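Lecture notes, part 5. Sequence design as translation. It can be helpful to think of inverse folding as translation between two languages: the language of shapes and the language of residues. The source text, in structure tokens, appears below.
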């Protein structure tokens, strides 16, 4: 009987839940108002044992040495080589005439045609219709 119930799903009859005041969440629940409190050392439970931190020292700064003027002065008298690349220095790119699977033959065989005279009929309720 249980298997048959799973084959014929129906909408269950469910009783309506009656609400009462203890189930209602206030519309202002979770809202924060005002500024967050800030603790000072005087308000600390440890009292005078906590003091304000000392002022921070400024971060170390780097003074980089610029060498662009020296590089420009050094390269001022240098002339780039002009000309053509010799044929001996040129490389021919690798080529491939066929693919790595071009010589592979597919499997050969015969198919079995199944001829089943009994065809299943679709019954009412098996198809889902969209709206």
């Amino acid at each position: 009987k249980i298997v048959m119930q799973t084959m014929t799903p129906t909408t269950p009859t469910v009783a309506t839940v009656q609400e009462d005041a203890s189930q209602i969440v206030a519309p202002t629940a979770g809202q924060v108002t005002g500024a967050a409190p800030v603790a000072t050392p005087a308000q600390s439970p440890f009292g005078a044992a906590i003091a304000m931190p000392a002022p921070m020292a400024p971060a170390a700064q780097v003074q980089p040495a610029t060498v662009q003027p020296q590089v420009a002065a050094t390269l001022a008298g240098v002339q780039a080589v002009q000309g053509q690349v010799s044929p001996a220095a040129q490389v021919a790119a690798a080529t491939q005439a066929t693919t790595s699977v071009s010589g592979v033959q597919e499997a050969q065989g015969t198919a079995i045609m199944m001829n089943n005279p009994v065809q299943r009929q679709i019954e009412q309720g098996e198809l889902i219709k969209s709206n």
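The translated text above is only one of many valid answers, since several sequences can fold into similar shapes. Residues 68-75 form the longest helix (8 residues).
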